Amino acid sequence: MKTLRVIRSFPLISLSLPPRCVEIIAKEGRSLKELYLVSCKITDHALIAIGQYSSTIETVDAGWCKEITDQGATQIARSSKSLRYLGLMRCDKVNEETVERLVVQYPHIVFSTVMQDCKRTLERAYQMGWSPNTSNAS
């Protein structure tokens, strides 16, 4: 467990993790800033545990985790004071309406979904002077 305490970034990609595994990582990873759980078979319990036990986590990417729901996304945003990025790309059980509400409630966290990323890209394009071509040229 001593090694886990000093790790700052922990990629766990496409794994089937027992529910307590992520909880132990959150509790013991005292320097953990980034946790990548992309395509892992985890549930809301994992996100809730991270929010509850990790005081240093800044980035959590749970993209393509099919069992993550509104509850997990809401709980980690609410309970984690250090979280700055939550990846929810293709977490299809997380409703976009919930994400919209979270964006307003927790403006210090970047929520990554298809819709949110498209909105940020379009906003940057407008800021750089892009405007849609509205002519009907053939």
TrEMBL record:
Query: Which organism is this entry from?
Result: Salvelinus namaycush (Lake trout)
Gene3D superfamilies given for it?
A: Ribonuclease Inhibitor (3.80.10.10)
What InterPro entries is this protein classified in? Leu-rich_rpt, Leu-rich_rpt_Cys-con_subtyp, LRR_dom_sf
Where does the UniProt annotation place the signal sequence?
A: none
Q: What is this protein called?
A: F-box/LRR-repeat protein 17-like isoform X1
Q: Which SMART domains match?
A: LRR_CC
